[in-house]
Structures are given as structure tokens and as C-alpha cells.
Write the C-alpha cells for this entry.
Amino acid sequence: MTQHAFDESNLKIRKLFPTPLVSYQLPDFEALNQALSAAIFAEEARARGVQHSNQGGWQSAADFATWSGEAGARLLALAQDMARSLTAVHTADNTLVHATFDWHFNAWANINRAGDSNSVHGHAGAFWSAVYWVDDGGRGEDPSVGGDLEFLDPRGLVASAYRPELRMRIEECVTAGCATTEAARSGTLVMFPSWLLHSVRPFTGARPRISIAFNFGL
């Protein structure tokens, strides 16, 4: 019997049950972010804020839409459009149609200063969640300031439970069983499933790190 050499080029790989993390860089975001920053700092001065996943820092109530003015309305409309573009509705005749409905939503602002972070959490009761970075706190110029958004593999330990040093040598599967991060970048909106557990790593920058978080559901 002829012994055939293994030919890696013949491999067919399906990546089952992928979890999306979608990012969108707003064009010409500087003026928008200036208006958002002014509104957020004014709300921080007015309201004590709430305590949820935030370890230090300031978090507004989930009423961003009521006090963020025209700039907030523009951002919320864009985020709604993004959530719709990523969603299909499974109909009774077993087809998928593009979502056109208006989402129910809530949104809140966050200010993290040196030493602040957010513990691991998910957003129950929503379908999509999102974060918009008004100011990355200097992360774009100096990665050492931290404050990265961290996502945990929803399947748990998987591969790393067997031998922690082993990795799947497959594109986009290297972090299976571990965590992966997304660096803050001013003017960027990221969206992900609301059940995906996430946290914000400790931030050490001298400039406040300002973000807006959203939930979208029905």
C-alpha cells in the first residue's frame, strides 16, 4: 500500500459558532467628540453617578439620550443603524430578512481615570451591546496606559484546560479558551453580542478615558 504524505494544503477548515466583534471608525469624529466630552463632563459635575461593574471611575445613569443633546442623538442614530445592519429576522417561512425595526435601547457614559477599571460582566436582557470611545485617554499614542476592553471566550477554558501552552494553529482560533482584547481608539464604535462577558483592564493614563456604552434589544 502506497504511503501518502500529509498535504496541509488540502485541509478544509470550518470555524464553527464564531462570535462577532464589529468595529466602525467614524469619519471626521473630532467635532462630535468635543461636543460629547463637554456634555459628559457637565453631567459628571451634576450627577453623582452609579456603581455597577466600574471599579472606581464615574458612570452615568442609563439616560444618556436625555442629556447628551444633538451630538448624543447623532451617535445613537448611527449605533442604531449599525445594530440593524448586523441583524436578520428569521421569518415563519424559514428565510432571513434584513432587520428594519427600531430598537429599544439604553446608553450611559463612563469616565475612567488613573487606577480605574471595570470588572467582568455581561449585559442581560439585550441583543447587541456597544462601546464608543470619545477619548481613548492616550492609548493611541502610548499603549502602556492600558484600559483595553477584554473579552472572555464564552466556551470557558476549552483548549487551555488540557495544556495551557498549546494553541490552535488556525487563524482567529489562537485565543480559544483564553481572553482577547480591543484597544480603545477615539472615534471608534465597537459592537458585540450582549451575552459576551467583558471587562476593562486597569487604566493608568493622565488624561481621562471617556466612553459611551449602549444596549440594544426589543
